[in-house]
Known about the structure:
Blueprint: E1 3-6, E2 11-15, E3 19-25, E4 31-38, E5 91-94, E6 104-113, E7 132-141, E8 146-155, E9 160-169, E10 175-187, E11 193-199, E12 209-212, E13 217-222, E14 231-239, E15 249-254, E16 260-266, E17 272-278, E18 285-287, E19 292-294, E20 298-303, H1 306-321, E21 336-338, H2 340-343, H3 349-360, E22 366-369, H4 398-407, E23 411-416, E24 420-421, H5 426-430, E25 450-451, H6 457-471, E26 478-481, H7 503-518, E27 526-529, E28 547-549, H8 556-566, E29 575-580, H9 588-595, E30 599-603, H10 611-626, H11 628-633, E31 635-638, E32 648-654, E33 660-667, E34 677-679, E35 689-693, E36 698-702, H12 703-709, E37 711-713, E38 722-730
Parallel strand pairs: 21-22, 21-30, 22-23, 23-26, 26-27, 27-28, 28-29, 29-30
Antiparallel strand pairs: 1-2, 2-3, 3-4, 5-10, 6-7, 7-8, 8-9, 9-19, 9-20, 10-17, 10-18, 11-12, 11-14, 13-16, 14-15, 15-20, 16-17, 24-25, 31-32, 32-33, 33-38, 34-37, 35-36, 35-38
Helix pairs in contact: 6-7, 8-9, 9-10
Bound molecules: alpha-D-galactopyranose.
Alpha-D-galactopyranose (GLA) binds next to loops.
Amino acid sequence: xxxxxxxxxxxxxxxxxxxxxxxxxxxxxxxxxxxxxxxxxxxxxxxxxxxxxxxxxxxxxxxxxxxxxxxxxxxxxxxxxxxxxxxxxxxxxxxxxxxxxxxxxxxxxxxxxxxxxxxxxxxxxxxxxxxxxxxxxxxxxxxxxxxxxxxxxxxxxxxxxxxxxxxxxxxxxxxxxxxxxxxxxxxxxxxxxxxxxxxxxxxxxxxxxxxxxxxxxxxxxxxxxxxxxxxxxxxxxxxxxxxxxxxxxxxxxxxxxxxxxxxxxxxxxxxxxxxxxxxxxxxxxxxxxxxxxxxxxxxxxxxxxxxxxxxxxxxxxxxxxxxxxxxxxxxxxxxxxxxxxxxxxxxxxxxxxxxxxxxxxxxxxxxxxxxxxxxxxxxxxxxxxxxxxxxxxxxxxxxxxxxxxxxxxxxxxxxxxxxxxxxxxxxxxxxxxxxxxxxxxxxxxxxxxxxxxxxxxxxxxxxxxxxxxxxxxxxxxxxxxxxxxxxxxxxxxxxxxxxxxxxxxxxxxxxxxxxxxxxxxxxxxxxxxxxxxxxxxxxxxxxxxxxxxxxxxxxxxxxxxxxxxxxxxxxxxxxxxxxxxxxxxxxxxxxxxxxxxxxxxxxxxxxxxxxxxxxxxxxxxxxxxxxxxxxxxxxxxxxxxxxxxxxxxxxxxxxxxxxxxxxxxxxxxxxxxxxxxxxxxxxxxxxxxxxxxxxxxxxxxxxxxxxxxxxxxxxxxxxxxxxxxxxxxxxxxxxxxx
Length: 738
Ligand code: GLA
């Protein structure tokens, strides 16, 4: 059992392999947070909380004359409201009488085997081989009978704790939730922590930012209805001295694909409070008597071994506990070519077959027909919503086209953007009320398209039915599921005025239902997510998609930063990355080496490549297969930070048994006649001998030597050169004893 309840101490210790999280039923039955950090025993850590009479931080009434107990200074698992804690809160609920009070005290708990699930929201699952236990703690407001269940699933081997909260209205009147966070984590002294996040923008997703905490509320959020290009729903609190290999790191990844919020407050006493959940902006949710509301889940991890270990905790977990698709491990993902940058809207069935024929020589195994094959879609102004084949372009019909592609020995993939509608479409003409548009106003257009009210059941049913009809009409192997705008005009024509604050969250719930109805019913199809690139790349999406298109920006050097940033949470096998025609000064081999830090593919017109280029691509496709297991399932190490002034950018994937590794080095800035540069691999067996191949020279050295002394990178070479070093453990030569 990874959860120990100590009756006498009233403590709960949640143990993973390397971490312990402790909480306690504390004074006046408030639930206190006591510890999150390296694994320790079950001893009562209540001694960590000291009480002082803190001026202007009030005391709950039943503290009587005792002035030293203030919720403003108590570390808690879930905050109350209007009880003297002025920090950021877990909940804001407007009660039936109009008040905002919530005074949550412990009432009960239960511990059981397995992981919790949530209503309509994705969660991580426990495999047969995992040790997973769940703790549920109920706290209740005695006046309103609002009950909040705090959920903790402890994935012991993975060092991951999944958390969420469920609000149950035990009263007899509806209440309105204005804010409800999935987690609250209090740090008794957090002045030594930095806030780490992955901000970005369209075309430049998941860049890296690290900032000191100052005495105010730091907000990382998306209000765009999608988890967004601008912020990823992931943050970490890391010790100031933490680096790749050393130092405390706390990671928080929210499993939610809509508007989210993470707040971190460094308070007056240098305590740090972190909350994360659905964005409370433009949000309110009615919970009727006897009904409940589930928050999305947060995946927390802790390590004192630096950023690298934090990332690997997430990588290992995301590869095994989010998605049951056979394309995660059992079936290899094919090298694909996508038609978007090759042809945009300008293609027909003949052109597709030509691209496929040419691509075959490049080692490509699947062609993906991107946007433009359906409805009336010759540009991005029309057709969205009409999910039937445009027979002017696909003259032979979809089934026949796929047969022709299959006859070439290739698989076929297709693009959809289900959540959207063009005003110039049959769907819009038939159901103008299905779009999100506020009465009396015009909806915001973006890429000239409008958003369907996916929270509505009839919209969901239409999408499930129309997409499935296409999927079942031909031998489709792969789907790219796109969304190409943010969500504005929060309004649903089927909800009363007082429930319009629910629209954004209902959209996300509706989307998950649509994805369940399409993706989960097609286990033999491989699904990739996309949102104008990586605008909705989040852990919840990865429960549906085995991979996510990283960015519309296919410039290889920009991708170095994008991959680097993404790698703090997301494993290589989830990041869609293609070789394209962007950046002609970068050699094809280098583009391919960079795309191999993701799920490799091409995005160019194969018919325009010459013989030499086709052969070069073939070699790279072969290499992708050769290193597939290492890349997809190995331990990932960032070896150089592309956000710094470096001459080389490098990363490494080490096999779990450490018998092999690949180190990819890209020369980004070579000064004339400059110094010799070295790259230091990590994660090798110190005493094993490794053969290093990759630049024409051959080195045989111990892991220790390679990790500490490094690998010298050849200098007299053109810029933007890639070296892919393959390290293999070799038997040590027999030692002669003299
Ligand atoms: C988005 C995607 C692209 C492509 C286009 C098609 O921008 O990110 O890869 O599919 O849509 O319209």
